[in-house]
Amino acid sequence: MLTISQLATYAGVTVRAVRHYHKIGLLPEPERDRSGYRSYDSAAVVRLIRIHTLADAGVPLARVQELLDAQPDEFEDGVRAIDKQLRAEIRRMQVSRERLARLAAGDHLALPHSVVDYLDRLRGHGVSERYIEMERDAWIMIAAQVPDVIDTVIAAKHQQFEDPDTRKLYSLVSEAVDNRGDEALLHEIADILERLYLRAYEAGQLGDEPFDDGLVQLLDAVMLESAPEAARLLAIMEHRGWKGWTRIEKVAPPGTNGTTIQSLLTY
User: Which of 35, 79, 131, 205 could form a disulfide with 177, with the two C-beta atoms 3.0–4.6 Å apart?
Assistant: First the structure.
């Protein structure tokens, strides 16, 4: 006959585990002898080893009793069912790990790879993280609203970035975001915007962006809240005949109908 410590040693478990198996009913608890100790026989050793083997294989303790008492064919079916559950859980955990990896990567949160690549291109150009965070937040909203066209829009952004004026614009806007209140800098940005807007207007690149009015207003609001200097820049541009931020409206020369073109900064 064995003590609880000897039983645990033979089965390769701890005394605490044996007591837990007693508590949940997996291992019958023997009566105490005259000295007040519990004694275990060889059958207890075998059952405890089987319990430990099943638990160590990943079988939930709630299912161990079922398998211990099952017939051979029932045991096989039960193991298959548990294996199926474990494989589903592994897949779920793999998906969770992939999501966590994207979260750790920062820009990958709620953004497709095409947008992340574009933001990385801006970083490579020296654009400040503060401005990139502002643009990233706008892209997150866009990707959620019009996911089917996001890659096409980003491809157009890459093409725009080949223009020296566009690259210069990003550099100046980044500088303006980090150095608020620089009026001369805002007018230099306005000069470039005016050239870009005018070229786009003359080329017939009108505002056919796939955004409804609500999204346009939201994107404008985000930019104005994130960069107070944007309001001053909008006022300068409106004085020059261009109104709006995400959706640009031509309001000059007098007498012409307002038309729109895609913003070169955000969508």
Answer: 131
